Amino acid sequence: YSSAVQKFSQTLQSFQFDFIGDTLTDDEINIAESFKEFAELLHEVELERSMMVQNASDLLIKPLENFRKEQIGFTKERKKKFEKDGEKFYSMLDRHLHLSSKKKESQLQEADLQVDKERHNFFESSLEYVYQIQEVQESKKFSIVEPVLAFLHSLFTYNNLTVELTQDFLPYKQQLQLSLQNTRNHFSSTREELEDLKKRMKEAPLTCKLPGQPTIEGYLYTQEKWALGISWVKYYCQYEKEAKTLRMTPIDQKPGAKQGTLDLTLKSCVRRKTDSIDKRFCFDIETNERSGTITLQALSEANRRLWMEAMDGKEPVSANTASLSKTVELNEVGFKFVRKCINAVETKGITTEGVYRTVGSNIQVQKLLNAFFDPKCPGDVDLQSGDWDIKTITSSLKFYLRNLSEPVMTYKLHKELVLAAKSENLDYRLGAIHALVYKLPDKNREMLELLIQHLVNVCEHSRENLMSPSNMGVIFGPTLMRAQEDTVAAMMNIKFQNIVVEILIEHFGKIYSGPPEDTTAPPVPPPRVAARRHKPITISKRPLRERPVFFGASVEESGAERLGQTPNGGGVEAPRPLHRSRLPAPRPGADEPGRSPAESRPQPRPEPELGKLGNRLQDGGAKPAGRAANGVVTSPALRTATLQARRPAPRPGICGREGDCDGVPKPRSHGDKPVITRPPVRPPDPPCRTPIPPKLEQRPDLIAGTAEEMPSSV
Is residue 27 classed as helix, strand or coil in its secondary structure? Predict the structure, then answer.
């Protein structure tokens, strides 16, 4: 399992996202880096797991094997020697008892000496064997339990670090989820615009316009009037919108004809009514070079629409169309409509969940717009009445802004605004957009300020309506900004239009407090090799938590030389502390010479962790390691925080040494050996309440059940 996770981590580390477009948003940068962050987390978890498995061998298996080989093996050797000496002694004793009393006195005395010698050897072997058995049985109590305890500490440390890693991961997860949601919103708005573009392209197919090429080109038929009648001549036409030049090249030239390519400058273009000519798909143009109108015929209705859009063609003048053209302009009636909609929303719908996101009925929207923009009595509609719901009002406001002949933020500044939003420098983004806002025409800037102020008020109630500045940017980005030409590339920039509106909302106070100091031009963006001002969210670069050390107490050289000595001269390796590949930075003053243990211990955090609860229950600092009577060095933190927590508190009248009453030992000075106190003969009284240190008196939630929770905390 660990190997599979590590391979998965390597796959995430090497994975690369492909993005469409020349620039990524901040949210897309966070998403692009997310897999590398995931890989670092998985690698860290598996590193801890491998350490835990290694500790299982170093802290548990090897010490138990050493104890079996050295202690129990040595006991078996003593048993063999005891049996051999016993057999030798009893066999000699049998022979000695069968000796005849008639033998010489010297022989009997010599036999007695040999028997006494063997008896002495046998007694010595017996004592050594019994002592060795007793020593093994006694040393089992710590030599076997201690490795298991160290392994459990390693296991729980791994689990505790996993929990801490989860706590570190939660803020990163929330920020990444926000980036994912923003990117999903941008995708949804872009997809809707692309669907509309696809429908328009199906209805009126158009060719892609390349940079430096004519705005539109293709075949047109021209009406030529001759003395004997009218004929239609086929031309290949190329029109350049910026210069308003039309180049007409005849296709079917007759031999000897003087007619060649015509270069004309366009003055106007008007659609030709069907009932005024017997041909379909016609439109009239006026040029500076020719007097009168020139009638052209397109290849289809869709093709005529494209030519007229490129030439800024107009419909034939009529009463109805003239009134309609006024309704989509940014005029006084429009300002009145926008103000009434804003007042209605802020009065009765500013806390409505999903305001501006929820779409109203198309029938009701058209009814409201027709009533408000009625040329007979424009603006004579009361939006505060119960006839119009919030969805209808907000949808009508968006419909009006989207169908203006030119968007609020104008076609002229569209490209510059998008380039500002694409900048990697956050200061340049704000400065450039600030400067470009004051390049808008006065009425456009007034309308934009009116709308953005309203969106700021709506976002202030985001807890109720769930509409954040990012959500508002998704809704009003395509509404306030539009590219003049509908292309797929323009649709891919919608997410940057959304960012422009989001910046306007978030920095409304600064932008509309006045024009920028330098109004000549926005600041020049820094080169792309410069460091980003926006830093992607990360978790792998966070400061590491300090790993708790289990057997970290220092010992004196004399104690270290005698550590774990066995009867046959061998030594038992003490369990080693847990190690990490990347150690945290040492705390200031932790190991400075001349500082007392109480001064060098880490200061407690405002919110104490459960892992440090055991240390806080002791009113002393870090105590030096003490050497028990059995010669095994143990950690004082382990002894006081773990073992003492499970045994009942001694009677109030019994003190191990002066000042150690009530079961709370006082800190010993360096070099003092612990005093072993024998338990009372009769069973102790019921455990009394352990005094609570002053630091925990303000935390009643941490006091309950402290003695039982202590081992898991350590």
Answer: helix
Query: 93-141, pLDDT tens digit by residue?
Result: 888 888 888 888 888 888 889 889 989 999 999 999 999 898 888 888 8
Output the CA–CA distances (angstroms, integers) from residue 45 to 52, 345, 541, in the order listed: 11, 51, 15
Instruction: List, in sequence order, every residue forming a beta bridge with 296; answer none if it has no partner.
Output: 222, 283
Pair 513, 407: CB distance under 8 Å: no
What are the backbone dihedrals phi and psi of residue 444, each rounded to the nearest 5 degrees, phi first?
-65, -40
Report CA torsion sign: 12, 18, 22, 27: negative
Concatenated DSSP letters of 362-401: HHHHHHHHHHHT-SSSTT---TTSTTS-HHHHHHHHHHHH
DSSP 8-state assignment for residue 296? E
Cα four-point dihedral sign 546, 548, 551, 557: positive
The one-letter amino acid code at 562 reads R
What is the distance of C-alpha 118 from the center of its chain? 81
What is the radius of gyration, based on Cα positions, of the chain? 46
User: Which structural domains are found in the chain, ordered by start?
Assistant: 1-203 (1.20.1270.60), 215-311 (2.30.29.30), 332-512 (1.10.555.10)
More confident residue, 532 or 342: 342
Cα 507 to Cα 475: distance, rounded to the nearest angstrom: 18
Q: Which two tokens stand for residue 539?
A: 């978790």
pLDDT at 557: 39
Q: Bin 581: left if φ > 0, else alpha if -120 < ψ < 50, else beta.
A: alpha
The residues with which 269 forms a beta bridge, in sequence order, are: 285
Which residue do the tokens 């094997």 mark? 65
Three-class SS state of 678:
coil
Q: Which two tokens stand for residue 459?
A: 């976002």
CA distances in angstroms from 420 to 416, 417, 496, 507, listed in the order given: 6, 5, 9, 15
Name the residue type at position 128: E
CA nearest neighbour of 242 among 507, 528, 485: 485
